[in-house]
Structures are given as C-alpha cells and as structure tokens.
Design brief:
With 639 residues, this protein is an alpha+beta fold. It folds into three domains: 400 residues, no CATH class; 82 residues, Alpha-Beta Plaits, CATH 3.30.70; 73 residues, Alpha-Beta Plaits (2-Layer Sandwich), CATH 3.30.70. Helix 13 crosses helix 18, helix 15 packs antiparallel against helix 16 and helix 19 runs antiparallel to helix 20. It is elongated, with a radius of gyration of 29 Å. The C terminus is likely disordered.
Length: 639
C-alpha cells in the first residue's frame, strides 16, 4: 500500500482541524417543537400565530402541588400560602377533595428549577411535587445530560472488550479503536457544521445514534478487513502486497454494504417529521466517515505496525483451518432445504410475539425511571382535572371567540375554559381537559375541539402539547407508509445490482424482513418482562431501517464471498469474522439501553436482538441454505 504515509498525514490533519474548529453536538441540538414537527402541522402554525399575535416572551407555568392523604390542616394552608408569597406564585388553589393545594409559578429560563424545588418544600409531612411543561422539559433534558460523553465511554469500553476477546492482541485492540474514534470525530464535526450553518436538524436521539452507529459499523468494517488481511498473510509474506490484495478483495463487499446503509438512511429525507428527516443525513454521514477511515487510515496503521500487530497470534504462511464453521457449512450444505424451511418457520413463529405490543407511548411513560415532573403530574391528576398541567391552546379571530368558548366548554372531555387572552384581532383560549393530556382520550377531545372551532371559523387553530402529539402521530403514520416501502425498494435495488439476479434479491430481502419481524417478537417478550410493552412509533421506523439496512450487510458480505469461492467455503471462511462483527454491532446498539429514555432503550434492545438473529440465524442458516437449494439462481456458486 504505497499511500500509507499520505493517508496517515491526511488523517492527522483531519484530527487537528476537527478538534480545533468544531464544537459539541449538544450546542446545536434542538428540542423545540418546530424542530420536530413540519411547518404545515396545525400545532406548529398555532405556535407561530401565538408568537406573532400574543406576548411571545410570556413565561410558561410551573405547577407546585401539595397534598396530604388524610386531608389538609390549617397549618398546611398557612405554610403553602407563605411559600406562595416567597416564590411570587399564584394561589394556593385548593382541590375539590380538600386534600391538595396548587401554586402556579410563571417560570423563565433565567430561573433554576432545582432552586424552585428546594424552595417549594415545606415541613410537616406534606407531599410536594413540582410539575408542568417546564419541569417535564427540564427532566427530559437532564436525562440527556452528558449523553455524548456517557455513550462514547460505554461504547468504547464495549468495543474494546469485544476486540480484545476476538483478537487477544493489545495492538489490534487499539488500531481499530483509534480509527473509529477519528471517524466519529470527523462525522461529529461535519454534522456540527451542517447544523450550525445549513440548518440540519440534530436532536439528542440522532446525536446518540450517530456515536453508536459509527463505532458499530466502523468496527464491523475493520474486522472484515483484518480478517481478509490475515488470510492474505497466510499466502503472501509481503505485507504491503497482502494488504493491497486484502483491500481489493474486501472493499467491494464493505463498500456495497456501506452504500446500502447510506442510501437507506437517506430515504429518511422524504419524511415529514423534522427529527426523522434530520436523522437520515446525520447517520449517513457517520457511515460514510466510518467507511473512509476503515479503508484508508486503518490499513496504514496496520502496515505501520508490521506483522506484530497480531501478537501474540502472528499469522504464519500455510493453509487456513475452518474448524467449527467448516462443520456448520458441511451440515447446511447437506441439509439445505430442511435447514431453510425450519429456520423460516422458526422466525415466523417468533414474529407472532409482535402482536402483543401496542404502539403510542405516552409522554409520562417516556422515562425508564419516574422523574419528579411525572410524579407531580400523577399527584395533580389525583386531585385536579388531569389536563390542568397542559391546557389545549385555541386561537381564533376575536368575533368568533365567545361562541367558540361556550361550545368548547360543552364538549365531552373538557373540564373548563379559562379567561381568554386578547391579541390584535385574535383571541387565545386555554382549554383544560378532563383527561391525561398525554393519553388517547385527550387526543380525541382535541380532535373534537378542532372540528368544533373549524365550523365556527376556518381560520381557527388548536395547539398545545396534546395537539402536538396528535400531529406528531399523524405525521409519523404518513412517514411509516412512505419511508418503509422506499427503504425496501432501495435495498432490493442494491441487491439486484450487486448479485446481477432478481429472484435471489427478493428472497434475501424477504429473509431480512422476516428477521425484523422475529426481532420485534422476541423484543416484545423482553419489553413485557421489564414493563415497557408500549412502543414509540419512532422505534418501529428506526428499528426497521437499521435492521433491514444493517442486517443485509452480513448477507452482502456472505454473497460477495460466495461468488469467489462458492457458498460452502464462503460460510466457513466468513463464519468467524461475521459472527464477531455481529456481536460487536449488537453490543454497541445495546449501549442505548443505559439511557433513561424508553424509546432509546427500546431501540437498543430491538436492534441488538435483530442483529444477533441476522448473525446467528439468517446469515448462518437461512441464507446459505436458500442459496444452495436454489442453485445458481441464488446468486452464489453451488458446490
């Protein structure tokens, strides 16, 4: 490899420039509703109208709830009144059951939520909780605090351990880690620049997935290259020539794999949900940087270290032994039809578990633990109308406001309508719902409100947190219907071009989709076991994307090798390295389970299970058996 020194010099320059010129992704991450929902969504237009016609700097309200199960005492009322005066809050507002008091505190960004919580507490055994939209957002942000650092450290530790177990070489532990770390640094810098200067939407979810994806996919590519280099060293004493041959033979499979994943990720740009659309380019940049580093920097580092990079298991010239994988290949070859039929039936049976899952995660159920804002909401809902924490916001031309207020107040699911807020020709109504604002009943009520005010005045807009979730769900439904078929078409097209066949790609794509169903079914059992059986819709879309795109990786690696050596030898030769790569990728996605956010934890479990199924079942049994049973129509050479 004659470009060793230029490659090393270029990557040293990249490392220096990205370190000096880029910042942390947390600086450009956005949790603003308008960064998630499309501009055309009604709740987004409601925010825009409120900013234009009403006081845009009006602070949101914190709700401080005090309760005593046995009933409030005079001392309780005096203590809470004193706290209201100290904090400058409205209230106390008593509950109808005489067991709770509530303070309403306008909250600005300049205030400290922790300070409010410490100041709000009173002595005497009163239960005190601080809730409301600002508290919920603060708890969500806190859950993502130090996300980049935590995920990076845990991911590096997981990859390091698995590389050490795989190669038992301290040098081969470090070289892939150095390469993938620089790939991650480059990807982060590019994403940072695009977000800061071109408006690319980055949220904590896509930032976390970027780290996991770069380390997982990058390490996979590294292991495939190193495995092929070891093979070549057993045939060729000349290290540069062996590396050149390893690159020439492994690059088509690695590049085809990366291209498939990148194109599938870019399908997300057709989504309407801004957060989903932003994830596509962010993750695609990560894969591209991983591919670049593993095919330029890593080979240069390996050549720099000589054969001693494999110490203490330095490869010697001679014939490779396939051991267990040779026996597995022989078994699959001898029983091809029985193997693929039994395997397909097993995956189909596992898929049935997916029917036990429900979709539509409530905001209050978005945490793996219960933060104070959620506990406070539950306390508030036990003594006040559940919608008190997050009223629906209705904006309509002033002449229609009076009629709208009376009709809205009479709707099922509406507790009451608060005093209107006047703007320039517009009126804002706060509508307190009877039900949990994050639940389906509240969403049904918001639909009724929208239908009612639209009849009164078509210009009316209904916003608020419940309306935002309603719009997000409808947008996600549209994205699922569009993006999933598009991903399948992209992957099918790549397989057709790669294999120069049509029947085999259809069957291979079907095997990956079947694997996704089985992963969803197995994951369902885990989610029920740990108490989180309701999926966020983003888990379905992202899980499908990553499992189909990444799952087909191993099939591509196998099929490209099968074209060279026939399926039995391809399975025997690639068995060890693809299994190791699958374990690394599954482990890196499993890192997401340390997150205290339910949808991130669910995505980590789903992708990890799916990758393991692809590694040990689909690639080891189903695909080889199908190819062998189909003969040449399977796209690989028969024995």
């Amino acid at each position: 490899m004659k470009y060793k020194w230029p490659a090393l010099g270029a990557w040293l320059l990249v490392a220096a420039l990205t370190f000096l010129l880029s910042g942390s992704l947390t600086e450009v991450e956005s949790n603003d509703v308008r960064a998630w929902l499309p501009a055309s969504a009604e709740s987004t237009r409601a925010i825009d109208l409120a900013d234009k016609e009403f006081s845009s700097d009006e602070p949101e309200d914190l709700l401080i709830v005090y309760a005593r199960d046995t009933g409030l005492t005079d001392a309780d009322r005096d203590a809470v009144a004193a706290r209201a005066a100290e904090l400058g809050a409205q209230g106390p507002l008593p509950s109808d059951d005489g067991k709770a008091l509530m303070l309403v505190l306008p909250f600005t960004a300049a205030q400290s939520l922790d300070h409010v919580r410490s100041q709000a507490a009173v002595a005497g055994g009163l239960t005190t909780k601080v809730t409301g939209r600002p508290a919920a957002e603060a708890d969500f942000d806190k859950a993502f605090d130090s996300l980049d650092t935590t995920l990076l450290l845990v991911t590096v530790a997981v990859v390091a351990v698995l590389l050490l177990l795989t190669y038992r070489s301290p040098v081969l532990l470090l070289l892939p880690l150095i390469s993938v770390a620089l790939a991650n640094q480059l990807a982060t810098a590019i994403v940072y620049g695009l977000s800061k200067h071109l408006g690319l939407v980055v949220d904590p979810q896509s930032a976390g997935i970027l780290t996991v994806l770069v380390f997982g996919a990058g390490t996979d590519y590294a292991m495939l290259l190193i495995s092929r280099y070891r093979e070549e060293l057993q045939r060729n004493e000349n290290r540069p020539a062996a590396m050149a041959s390893a690159l020439r033979r492994s690059l088509p499979a690695i590049a085809a794999s990366a291209t498939t994943v990148i194109l599938a990720l870019l399908a997300l740009v057709f989504a309407d949900l801004n957060s989903t659309r932003g994830l596509g380019p962010v993750a695609a940049i990560g894969i591209a940087c991983a591919l670049l580093a593993m095919t330029t920097l890593l080979p240069a580092l390996i050549l720099l270290g000589g054969r001693w990079v494999f110490w203490p298991s330095i490869p010697k010239r001679g014939k490779a032994s396939f051991g267990m994988w040779g026996r597995i290949a022989a078994f699959v070859t001898s029983h091809a039809r029985a193997v693929w039929i039994v395997t397909a039936l097993g995956l189909a049976a596992a898929s049935l578990g997916a029917t036990t899952l429900s979709v539509g995660l409530r905001e209050a159920g978005s945490f793996t633990t219960k933060p104070e804002s959620v506990a406070g909401f539950e306390l508030l809902a036990a003594h006040y109308p559940a919608g008190s924490s997050e009223p629906a916001q209705v904006y309509l031309p002033t002449p229609a406001a009076k009629q709208a207020a009376s009709q809205i107040a009479a709707l099922p699911g509406v507790d009451h309508v608060e005093e209107p807020e006047q703007g320039d020709g517009w009126t804002g109504l706060k509508v307190v719902l009877s039900d949990d604002p994050g639940g389906q009943q509240a969403e049904a009520t918001v639909k009724r409100i929208r239908e009612t005010v639209r009849v009164i005045d078509p210009a009316a807009l209904v916003g608020g947190s419940t309306a935002q979730r309603l719009d997000q769900d409808s947008t996600m439904d549209r994205d699922l219907r569009l993006v999933i078929p598009l991903i399948l078409v992209i992957v099918l097209g790549v397989l057709i071009v790669l294999l120069r066949a049509f029947v085999a790609p259809l069957l291979l794509l079907g095997s990956v989709v079947l694997s996704f169903g089985a992963a969803l079914g197995v994951s369902a059992a885990i989610f029920h076991l740990i108490g989180f059986p309701t999926l966020d819709k983003s888990v379905v879309l992202n899980g499908f994307l990553f499992l189909v795109a990444l799952g087909v990786d191993y099939t591509i690696f196998l099929m490209v090798r099968a074209r060279e050596d026939g399926m039995p030898k391809a399975l025997a030769v690639t068995g060890g390295v693809i299994t190791s790569a699958g374990l690394v990728l599954a482990a890196t996605f499993a890192v997401l389970t340390v997150m205290p956010i339910v949808f991130m934890m669910q995505l980590g479990v789903l992708v990890a299970i799916g990758v393991l199924l692809d590694t040990f079942v689909v690639r080891t049994l189903l695909v080889p058996a199908l190819v062998l049973d189909l003969g040449r129509r399977g796209g690989g050479r028969t024995p």
